[in-house]
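Good morning,

Attaching, inline, the C-alpha cells for the sequence recovery test we're adding to the shared suite. The designed sequence is right after.
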C-alpha cells in the first residue's frame, strides 16, 4: 500500500509537469484596484521623499556616511565569500535567464505568452525608469566619494537608485505577480521580499552602494510591480499579434496557403441520342443527379474546345445507330477465314 501511494504521488507530480491540452479558460490577471492605486501613490511619495532627503543633504546622507565608515566588509569579514555569491541574485543577466527559463516553461505548459511578455515589459520599465534616474542624478558611490558629508550628486555617477536592488525586486517579484493561486502568491511574495532585501544589504556590506541607494532601489522596483496591471491590455494585444504572425508563418512554410480557385462550371451529363437543342438547354439548366449506381461520364467544362471538336462517350457505348446488315466483328472474321482440314 505504501508503494502504491508513493507511485500515485509521483504520477501527480509528473502530471503537473506535462503540457495542458489547451489554454486555461480563465487566467488570473491582476487588475488596478483602488487598493493597488493607493499603494502605488504611497510608494511614489516615499520615492520622491528619499530623493529630496538626499538632495538637501539631510540626516539620511549623514547615515550613509556613518555606514560607509563602519565598513561592514571588515567588521564581518568571515561572510565575505558568501555575500560575493549572494549578490549575484541581483544581477540582471543571471537572474533574467533563470526566471525566463521558468516562465518559458509556464508559457509552453499553458499555451500562452503572457508570462514571458510580462517579464519583458517589467524589465523594459526597469531599464527606462531606473536607468534614467541613475543618469539624471549622477551620484557617485562610496568608493568614489570626493567630499566627506556631501551627497555626491551630479558628479557623473550611476548608483542612485541601486540597480541590483531594483532588479531583485522586479525579477523575483514577477514570480509572485504571475502566481496562479493566492497561496502561491503569498509565499512567493515573502520569498522575493527576503531575497531583494538581502541583495540590497549585500551591496551595502560590500561598499558598492549607499544605504539610501538601496532604499530607493526597493521603492523603484515596487513601483514597477504595482504598475504592471496598466500594461496588461498591451501585453494581451501583443500576444494575439504574435500568435497571428506565427500562424501565418506556419501556413506559408508548410505550403498550406490556398490559391485563389477559379470558378468551376456545373458538370453536365451527356445522354445518347440528344440533339444540339437538347444539349443547349441542358447547359442552361443544371441536370438532376443520376440515380443509377454507375456514375455517368461528364464532359470537361470550359471554353478551351468548341462543341464540334468534342467527342463525348457515354457509358452505353457509341452514339452511331445500329445497322442490321452488319455483323459483329468476331463473326465476320470467322466467316471470311477458310477452313483447312487436318
Amino acid at each position: 500500500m505504501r508503494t502504491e501511494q508513493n507511485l500515485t504521488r509521483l504520477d501527480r507530480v509528473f502530471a503537473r509537469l506535462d503540457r495542458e491540452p489547451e489554454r486555461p479558460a480563465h487566467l488570473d490577471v491582476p487588475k488596478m484596484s483602488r487598493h493597488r492605486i493607493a499603494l502605488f501613490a504611497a510608494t511614489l511619495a516615499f520615492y520622491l521623499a528619499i530623493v529630496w532627503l538626499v538632495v538637501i543633504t539631510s540626516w539620511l546622507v549623514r547615515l550613509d556616511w556613518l555606514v560607509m565608515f563602519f565598513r561592514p566588509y571588515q567588521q564581518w569579514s568571515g561572510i565575505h565569500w558568501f555575500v560575493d555569491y549572494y549578490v549575484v541574485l541581483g544581477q540582471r543577466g543571471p537572474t533574467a535567464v533563470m526566471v525566463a527559463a521558468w516562465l518559458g516553461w509556464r508559457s509552453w505548459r499553458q499555451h500562452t505568452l503572457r508570462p514571458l511578455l510580462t517579464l519583458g515589459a517589467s524589465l523594459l520599465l526597469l531599464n527606462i525608469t531606473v536607468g534614467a534616474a541613475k543618469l539624471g542624478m549622477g551620484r557617485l558611490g562610496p568608493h568614489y566619494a570626493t567630499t566627506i558629508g556631501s551627497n555626491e550628486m551630479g558628479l557623473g555617477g550611476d548608483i542612485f537608485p541601486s540597480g541590483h536592488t531594483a532588479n531583485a525586486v522586479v525579477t523575483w517579484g514577477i514570480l509572485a505577480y504571475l502566481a496562479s493561486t493566492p497561496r502561491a502568491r503569498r509565499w512567493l511574495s515573502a520569498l522575493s521580499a527576503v531575497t531583494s532585501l538581502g541583495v540590497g544589504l549585500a551591496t551595502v556590506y560590500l561598499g558598492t552602494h549607499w544605504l539610501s541607494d538601496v532604499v530607493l532601489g526597493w521603492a523603484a522596483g515596487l513601483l514597477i510591480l504595482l504598475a504592471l496591471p496598466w500594461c496588461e491590455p498591451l501585453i494581451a494585444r501583443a500576444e494575439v499579434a504574435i500568435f497571428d504572425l506565427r500562424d501565418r508563418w506556419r501556413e506559408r512554410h508548410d505550403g498550406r496557403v490556398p490559391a485563389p480557385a477559379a470558378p468551376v462550371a456545373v458538370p453536365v451529363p451527356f445522354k445518347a441520342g440528344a440533339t444540339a437543342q437538347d444539349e443547349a438547354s441542358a447547359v442552361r439548366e443544371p441536370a438532376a443527379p443520376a440515380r443509377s449506381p454507375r456514375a455517368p461520364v461528364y464532359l470537361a467544362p470550359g471554353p478551351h474546345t468548341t462543341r464540334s471538336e468534342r467527342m463525348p462517350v457515354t457509358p452505353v457505348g457509341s452514339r452511331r445507330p445500329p445497322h442490321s446488315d452488319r455483323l459483329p466483328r468476331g463473326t465476320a472474321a470467322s466467316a471470311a477465314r477458310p477452313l483447312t482440314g487436318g
